[in-house]
Amino acid sequence: MALLCERCWKAYADEIAIQEGATDTPRPEPDPDDVTPYEPPRCPHCKAEVSPYLTNYDRWVHLATRDYPAKDVPPRYRWRLVAVLARHSSVPTGSVAVRVRGIEPLPSDLVRPAHRAVCLSPDAVDEVEQEPVSDL
Questions:
Q1: Quick one: 79 exposed, middle or buried, by C-beta within 10 A (0-12, 13-18, 19+)?
Q2: If we measure between CA atoms, which residue out of 81, 64, 53, 45 comes closest to residue 117?
Q3: Which end of the chain is more exposed for a tag (fewer CB within 10 A), N or C?
Q4: What is the spatial order of strands in the sheet that 68-69 belongs to?
Q5: What is the pLDDT of residues 90-118, one digit of tens each?
Q6: What is the rounded CA–CA span in Å between residue 31 and residue 121?
């Protein structure tokens, strides 16, 4: 396993993010002293609620708010949420989004699709419909 310098790691992570549809902009943390209502993030195209998750390579991805069977989600848009455990504990402290690849899930297995796969904007619908059936 090779170690990358900070600049090389950023370039590598940015390349992966472009391929997977992730972004390097973290979601804003609400100020604890701010009393204005905090609204969950929404898609700029269809105005649906999205869930931003940190990926395993330090970028953020917008995922749908619920899981779908793998047979209903094109392979490029399949993600899973992996629990992050506290050190020396079995208590989960958060979750990280990991793209499903390598081993294909069973058609009935639940995956969390990228929001782009369920977005109702015409551009997103066209993009998902032109997606190949498999990533072979």
A1: buried
A2: 64
A3: N
A4: 68-69, 110-113, 78-85, 92-99
A5: 888 889 999 998 888 999 999 999 998 99
A6: 32
